[in-house]
Amino acid sequence: MSKAHRWISALWIATFLFTGTALCQGQQPLAVQKIKGNVYMVKGGSGANTGFFVGDNEVVVIDAKMTADSQKQVIQEIKNLTSKPITKIILTHSDGDHVNGLNAFPVGLKIYSHPQTKKDMEDAAQAPNMEYLREYLPNEICSPGAPSKMPVMTIPVGNEKIELYFFGPAHTSGDLIVYFPAEKVAFVGDLVFTGRDPLIHRFKGGTSSGLVETLQSMLRLDADPYLSGHSDPLSKQDIQSALASITEKRDKVKTMVAEGKSLEEIKKAFGVVEAPAQPGRMRFMSLVEVIFLDLTEKK
Fold it and tell me: What is the pLDDT of residues 175-190, one digit of tens each?
């Protein structure tokens, strides 16, 4: 198997297993929650939380579910609220639980993303049964260049606007924050988890140092709440707690690396217990291991 095909296989095994675990535990019923104004979040079904905004003449959707069937349910919920057409989709990043349901939409909508998200989806579309993604590749690409405190793209929607921010590689190297300045609501994809350590995809260019910087930048947004892919709405205090947790772990790992401790010694000190390896399943790195590898540059 070529290096490129191994990478593609690893990418889609990882993104499927991340959501597949939740699916095996049973899906929660779909639930639409009005956040502020005309901004909504959709929980349940298969895959991550999604969102949508009802504008003057159109609807903008944020992320797709893990499957077309689940995303069709979301579309039906939107139709129950408004007869306005869905014209735009914004992708926070390329994980399967955020993009695999795109084929529930008609072909030809405007799809916004970071350029790396498009590249990840192009690679994923080479895998068996994923060819359909070729018809849903992002066609409205922001050009962020270096991380910026300013929006990398502004999308007009009637009398309102949506701002897209890129603060650098974090969960992946293509994470966008979708910000509604009028409502002060931010969709942040998988940049924040609650009740567990963050998940960082090193094979997609994510880094622990980048996540710290991104969380710091997120706190400077005038946002309340923050909406993530796998939790209830979050406050600034929740973001601060997540930042404090990862910063504390990074500082401890850095000290232990300087003392010459090995990865296994550091894992043991943090009480990290690895799940037994299973054939055909990708092992997810613990946050401690990601930090260690980032600090020692052993990618």
Answer: 999 999 999 999 999 9
Cβ proximity of 117 and 138 under 8 Å? yes
The answer to whether 263 and 228 are in contact (CB under 8 A) is no
- Mean pLDDT, rounded, for 95-124: 97
Q: Is the predicted pLDDT of residue 244 greater than 80, yes or no?
A: yes
Q: Where are any strands of DSSP class E within 37-172?
A: 39-45, 50-54, 59-62, 86-90, 110-113, 140-141, 153-157, 160-165
258 three-class SS = helix
Q: Cα(162)–Cα(24) distance, rounded to whole angstroms?
A: 35
Do the Cβ atoms of 111 and 135 come closer than 8 Å?
no
What average pLDDT does range 212-229 have in this prediction? 96
Rg from Cα positions in the chain: 19
CA angle 231, 7, 246 (to 5 degrees): 35
Phi then psi for 156, rounded to 5 degrees?
Answer: -75, 135
299 pLDDT exceeds 90? Answer: no
**Largest Cα–Cα distance of the chain, in whole Å?**
63
299 beta partners? none
Residue 60 phi, psi (nearest 5): -115, 130
Q: Phi and psi at residue 254, in whole multiples of 5°?
A: -60, -40
CB 220 within 8 A of CB 261: no
Contact (Cβ atoms closer than 8 angstroms) between residue 109 and residue 88: yes
Give yes or no for a contact between 257 and 201, defined as CB atoms under 8 angstroms apart: no
Please enumerate in sequence order all residues whose Cβ is within 8 A of that of 297, keeping only pairs 6 or more positions apart, or say none. none
22 or 254, which is more confident: 254
Mean pLDDT, the chain, rounded, equals: 89
